[in-house]
Each structure stands twice: as structure tokens, then as C-alpha cells.
Write a structure and sequence with these properties.
Length: 367
């Protein structure tokens, strides 16, 4: 092939790639499909790998913006950079190199690079990235890694909020690793269940606020893990479900207990007996999802919640979590009274009241 022919071919490829990206952005901006569905559709239907949004993140959104501005000059306004691209670049979300573009990317702390759960510290906020391809299935090594991350987080007390996220932008967690479970005897299986339940209850009782950033599938153990978090921020693409019954088993990580407390007994029974998942909007209406946001805003929203909640007084946070939702009203009121007395005597309470009277921002120390 001549040099000119190679140049022409490269120009055609560049023009097609940029146009596919622009059209993908327009489809996203118009609300026709989610970012996840667009990328999946381009991979499965058009054979474009990597798909437009993932490709742009890899290249760098600032570089993509520069290419489109040049293309618009050369080929016309059809290549004008989309609004969403300009906004993300202005926010510093430049793709993989920045840790976030259209999708978020894990930037693990030292010593966590090879773990199936990667811990990332950002001041008073930590992120636990589930990273076990292809489906982030919960296996013994994932449970152990979750426990290790939790122990590290609560051990040094540097973080007051935890975002539980997926390193796979296409899903949160597709459930338990059934193959791994079939290799375990009854004793090992019971130990794993006990370990997972102990971890989830520790999260619920802790002064650390936990937020699940749920994009794509959160099924079985993945849904149960999300339900044990204090809040669930869901992307528009999120799907929640407990499909264990289709395997002849029942939920094992709290799905028969937490789900009815969130969505009501009737709906929980329906979901557990049919195994059919529900979408993000229905999950929000039922109380399973705290908020629903566009896919590309999922991580930022969860991180924003984490930063806000990390500023709250830890002792008060822990007491509120522990005394809330008691089964019987009188028991609950007595529990609340004791919790109030415990917190009222704390240094944080004195600081909060003084800051209010002095019209300044309080500095809570967890004492």
C-alpha cells in the first residue's frame, strides 16, 4: 500500500471513530440509552472494541476533545465536540490517566494492586473497588479481601466514609461464585457464611458510613452486599435481584432479612421467590436505591455523599445506626434514650454545640 493510501485509510478510520463517539454522546445526552448500554451495544452489535466511551477514556478526554475540534474545522459541524465531553474535561475527568472519565478507575493504595478488592484512600473517604473479573463474583478470596479492607479502614481510623464500587464499569457484582461454593464442604461453607455475615453486621454497626455505588448488575450476593451498606446510589443502568431460587437455593448473605426491611415483605417475597430483578427506578420507588443518577455521574455522586457524611460526628453516626429501626417501638425508644445519653456526654457534642453558638464549622474528633 502506498503512503498516500495508508494516509487515506487512517483518515477514514479516524473519521469513523470520531463520528461514532459523537453519535454515542448524542444518544446519551438525549436519554435514548445509558452509557453502559451504548458501549455494550457497540461491542455486541457493531463489533467495536473497545467501545466509544471506554476508548475515549483510554485515549484521554482532553486528547479526544482536541481531535474533535480539529475534525470540526476540517470536516464540519457534525464533528463539533459534544457538551458532555466539554463538561467532563472542564471537571478534570480526563479518563484513565486521571482516575475518572466517563467511567471511574481504581487507583489502589500501595500493597492493594493485586487484591480482588482494591483499597484507595482519599483523605477521610476510602473506596473499596471490587475487581474480580469477569463478574466480580463473591468467592472466599473476595470475602477475605473485603474483610482485610474493612480491617485496614477501621484499624487506622483515618477514613469516616467508605464507597463500595466496582472496577468493572459494566456491573457491580453478579452474585456469589457458585463454582467456588461447590468445592467447599459443609463446615467450610458455614465458616464463609459466618465470616460474611460478621463483616456485614460490622459495617452496619460502625461509625463509618458505607455507600454502595451500584452500576449494572447487583444480583444475589452483590445485592446483599449493597443492602448491608447504609446507602445505595444507583446508576440508571442498575439492576437489583435475588436469583438464587433458580439454582434451587435461597439467599445466604441476608437477602431474606434485609430485603423485606427495605422494600416490604410482599415485594421481597416476590423477588426472592421469582428471582426476577428490578430496575433502578423501581428500586428507588421501593426504597432499595437511595438515589438514581445517570451512569456517568454515579461515582461522583457516591463520592460526594461520602465526603459530606465523613464530616458528620462519628459517635453520633454510630449511635444513630445502632439504635435505628428497632423491631418494637418501646424497645427502640429506650435504646434511643441510652444512645442520646452516650453521645450527649461526648467531646463531639460539646464541640458541636459550641460551634453552633459561635457560628463556626465544628471539628469532630470521634471522642
Amino acid at each position: 500500500m502506498s503512503t498516500q493510501a495508508e494516509t487515506d485509510a487512517a483518515s477514514i478510520v479516524e473519521r469513523f471513530t470520531l463520528k461514532a463517539f459523537v453519535e454515542s454522546c448524542l444518544v446519551l445526552e438525549e436519554g435514548v440509552a445509558s452509557m453502559r448500554d451504548i458501549d455494550l451495544g457497540m461491542m455486541a452489535g457493531a463489533g467495536i472494541i473497545p467501545p466509544p466511551f471506554a476508548r475515549a477514556d483510554q485515549l484521554g478526554l482532553d486528547e479526544m476533545l482536541a481531535r474533535l475540534e480539529h475534525a470540526a474545522t476540517e470536516w464540519g459541524e457534525a464533528f463539533e465536540p459534544p457538551r458532555i465531553l466539554r463538561r467532563l474535561v472542564a471537571q478534570g475527568r480526563l479518563g484513565v490517566k486521571a482516575g475518572q472519565g466517563f467511567f471511574p478507575y481504581a487507583r489502589a493504595d500501595a500493597g492493594w494492586d493485586e487484591s480482588p478488592v482494591k483499597l484507595e484512600s482519599r483523605g477521610e473517604v476510602a473506596i473499596a473497588w471490587i475487581d474480580r473479573p469477569p463478574a466480580n463474583s463473591i468467592s472466599p478470596d473476595v470475602v477475605a479481601a473485603l474483610q482485610r479492607a474493612w480491617d485496614a479502614l477501621t484499624g487506622d481510623r483515618s477514613a469516616r466514609a467508605l464507597v463500595l464500587a466496582s472496577a468493572n464499569p459494566m456491573l457491580f457484582c453478579a452474585g456469589a461464585d457458585i463454582k467456588a461454593f461447590t468445592t467447599m464442604d459443609a463446615t467450610a461453607g458455614r465458616q464463609l457464611l459466618d465470616q460474611m455475615h460478621e463483616l456485614l453486621r460490622a459495617m452496619e454497626r460502625s461509625s463509618v458510613v458505607t455507600i454502595a455505588a451500584v452500576g449494572g448488575l447487583a444480583l444475589g450476593g452483590g445485592c446483599e452486599l449493597a443492602m448491608a451498606c447504609d446507602f445505595r446510589i444507583a446508576a440508571e443502568s442498575a439492576m437489583f435481584g435475588q436469583p438464587e431460587i433458580s439454582l434451587g437455593i435461597i439467599p445466604g448473605f441476608g437477602g431474606t432479612q434485609r430485603l423485606p426491611r427495605l422494600v416490604g415483605e410482599a415485594k421481597a417475597l416476590e423477588m426472592n421467590l421469582t428471582g426476577e430483578p428490578i430496575g433502578a427506578e423501581e428500586a428507588h420507588q421501593l426504597g432499595l436505591a437511595t438515589r438514581v443518577v445517570p451512569d456517568h455521574e454515579l461515582f461522583d455522586t457516591a463520592l460526594g455523599w461520602a465526603r459530606k457524611l465523613a464530616a458528620q460526628p462519628p459517635l453520633a453516626v454510630q449511635q444513630i445506626k445502632q439504635v435505628s429501626a428497632q423491631g418494637e417501638l418501646d424497645v427502640g425508644i429506650e435504646t434511643e434514650k441510652q444512645g442520646f445519653a452516650n453521645v450527649f456526654a461526648s467531646e463531639d457534642a460539646r464541640e458541636g454545640i459550641s460551634a453552633f453558638l459561635q457560628k463556626r464549622t465544628p471539628r469532630f474528633q470521634g471522642r
